[in-house]
Amino acid sequence: MFVARVAQDFRDANSRQRKKLVGMGIRIREVDGSFSLKSILERAKQDLGETMPLVTPILEAVRDNGDRALRELTHKFDKLDIDTFYHPVGEWKGSIPSDLQAALEKAKQNIETFHRAQLPTSLDTIVSGNRLGIRYTPIESVSVYAPGGKALYPSTILMGVLPARIAGVPHIQIVTPPQVGGIPDGLYAAAKIAGADAIITAGGAQGIAAVAYGTKSIPRSEFVIGPGNKFVTAAKIILSGQGRIGIDSPAGPSEVLVIADDSANPNWVAADLLSQAEHGEDSAAILCTDSMEFAKKVSAEIDKALVERPKRREMKTASIQNESWILVFPNLKFCVDFSNQYAPEHLEIQTRNYPELFEGIRHAGSVFLGPYSPVAMGDYISGTNHILPTAGGSRIFSSLGVMTFLKRITYQEINRSSLKELYPHVKVLSEFEGLDEEHGNSVKVRLPE
């Protein structure tokens, strides 16, 4: 009797929670001439206008006072007192569960295989009788930022470190916020598996400043990559603007856009939308479809899931209610057109003709094709990179890869006969630009009398 009563109480509580959420879920809109897509296209981009003035004094403090400022800022923001920031990965003596070890090793294998295939070949060719070419050289030092606020991300360590190591970067360090009890073994293990040299326990803008300027205990990095909150993003933008560091791309809230027709499984699509909402209140999950009936089925599955899967419910609900949409277009061509305008971080295409629709995609961070390709596969194990441009950044930026860490050096070897043959053109062009006295002359003096 008691068991039955408890079960009934649980069902009643579930029912009350369901009623609370029903009608409060994702918004469905039929897209026609009367509905503006402007606010959706703009989404919850990080407004850094108010953040920049807050970050600048933090950067200056670390620049001027190094480790002392870093300790004070860590105490202020993280409520922790840190004696040592630099932790060589080789000194770690801990262990992790065997299943986690196996998962990290498999992820490494797939990421390495995909990224090794990206290595470019040098170019050596002849143009107008002269030898011209391209040689690729790696950046000297890189810091990979691994967030540590709402969750820990050993997967981000693999995604950031492995391509840099494949590119030949000599020194790679992880920057991550300090944790009560020290660096988790899972992060240490990921860093060791990926081949990082050290972990820096300094988060936020102060952590970025530490690796950008360098301190007595922390080596300076030339390049900083990885996602973070608005303070991390602001720090990266400011420091890259000063020429202190190179960065991958400004990062904002996570996002997914799904194009699906009525052949897709509404439960699967709902799960994919919620997997993005799980990242944070400002994450965006967009479904574009040509079927209102399918849209309603997905909405119902989302409401059901928010009741049945309570972990991070408040965060997921806020994302679904405030930043997410189901948009019903006249046909799938309109869905593709909207996706190219939106330029999502993650794009899923779950339709009967997904190969055909994929041909029309011009702007996306990473694309997941067919019903068995959820974003989570790319997040962890498929081998593509999950460090991607957000907030429409895929219109001009690409996913992180081996080329992120390589510089292209062009070279030329001009022969004597070509110098003579091409000089008249140099003379005309340098005279037109008013630089003939020295530019033109530097060629002329090499010609035979």
From TrEMBL:
<feature type="binding site">
    <location>
        <position position="439"/>
    </location>
    <ligand>
        <name>Zn(2+)</name>
    </ligand>
</feature>
<dbReference type="GO" id="GO:0051287">
    <property type="term" value="F:NAD binding"/>
</dbReference>
<keyword id="KW-0520">NAD</keyword>
<keyword id="KW-0479">Metal-binding</keyword>
<dbReference type="GO" id="GO:0008270">
    <property type="term" value="F:zinc ion binding"/>
</dbReference>
<feature type="binding site">
    <location>
        <position position="229"/>
    </location>
    <ligand>
        <name>NAD(+)</name>
    </ligand>
</feature>
<feature type="binding site">
    <location>
        <position position="379"/>
    </location>
    <ligand>
        <name>Zn(2+)</name>
    </ligand>
</feature>
<feature type="active site" description="Proton acceptor">
    <location>
        <position position="346"/>
    </location>
</feature>
<dbReference type="InterPro" id="IPR022695">
    <property type="entry name" value="Histidinol_DH_monofunct"/>
</dbReference>
<protein>
    <recommendedName>
        <fullName>Histidinol dehydrogenase</fullName>
        <ecNumber>1.1.1.23</ecNumber>
    </recommendedName>
</protein>
<feature type="active site" description="Proton acceptor">
    <location>
        <position position="345"/>
    </location>
</feature>
<feature type="binding site">
    <location>
        <position position="206"/>
    </location>
    <ligand>
        <name>NAD(+)</name>
    </ligand>
</feature>
<feature type="binding site">
    <location>
        <position position="145"/>
    </location>
    <ligand>
        <name>NAD(+)</name>
    </ligand>
</feature>
<keyword id="KW-0028">Amino-acid biosynthesis</keyword>
<feature type="binding site">
    <location>
        <position position="279"/>
    </location>
    <ligand>
        <name>Zn(2+)</name>
    </ligand>
</feature>
<feature type="binding site">
    <location>
        <position position="276"/>
    </location>
    <ligand>
        <name>Zn(2+)</name>
    </ligand>
</feature>
<dbReference type="InterPro" id="IPR016161">
    <property type="entry name" value="Ald_DH/histidinol_DH"/>
</dbReference>
<dbReference type="GO" id="GO:0004399">
    <property type="term" value="F:histidinol dehydrogenase activity"/>
</dbReference>
<feature type="binding site">
    <location>
        <position position="379"/>
    </location>
    <ligand>
        <name>substrate</name>
    </ligand>
</feature>
<feature type="binding site">
    <location>
        <position position="439"/>
    </location>
    <ligand>
        <name>substrate</name>
    </ligand>
</feature>
<dbReference type="Pfam" id="PF00815">
    <property type="entry name" value="Histidinol_dh"/>
</dbReference>
<feature type="binding site">
    <location>
        <position position="433"/>
    </location>
    <ligand>
        <name>substrate</name>
    </ligand>
</feature>
<keyword id="KW-0560">Oxidoreductase</keyword>
<feature type="binding site">
    <location>
        <position position="346"/>
    </location>
    <ligand>
        <name>substrate</name>
    </ligand>
</feature>
<feature type="binding site">
    <location>
        <position position="254"/>
    </location>
    <ligand>
        <name>substrate</name>
    </ligand>
</feature>
<comment type="similarity">
    <text>Belongs to the histidinol dehydrogenase family.</text>
</comment>
<dbReference type="InterPro" id="IPR001692">
    <property type="entry name" value="Histidinol_DH_CS"/>
</dbReference>
<comment type="function">
    <text>Catalyzes the sequential NAD-dependent oxidations of L-histidinol to L-histidinaldehyde and then to L-histidine.</text>
</comment>
<dbReference type="GO" id="GO:0005829">
    <property type="term" value="C:cytosol"/>
</dbReference>
<feature type="binding site">
    <location>
        <position position="279"/>
    </location>
    <ligand>
        <name>substrate</name>
    </ligand>
</feature>
<dbReference type="InterPro" id="IPR012131">
    <property type="entry name" value="Hstdl_DH"/>
</dbReference>
<dbReference type="GO" id="GO:0000105">
    <property type="term" value="P:L-histidine biosynthetic process"/>
</dbReference>
<keyword id="KW-0862">Zinc</keyword>
<feature type="binding site">
    <location>
        <position position="276"/>
    </location>
    <ligand>
        <name>substrate</name>
    </ligand>
</feature>
<comment type="pathway">
    <text>Amino-acid biosynthesis; L-histidine biosynthesis; L-histidine from 5-phospho-alpha-D-ribose 1-diphosphate: step 9/9.</text>
</comment>
<keyword id="KW-0368">Histidine biosynthesis</keyword>
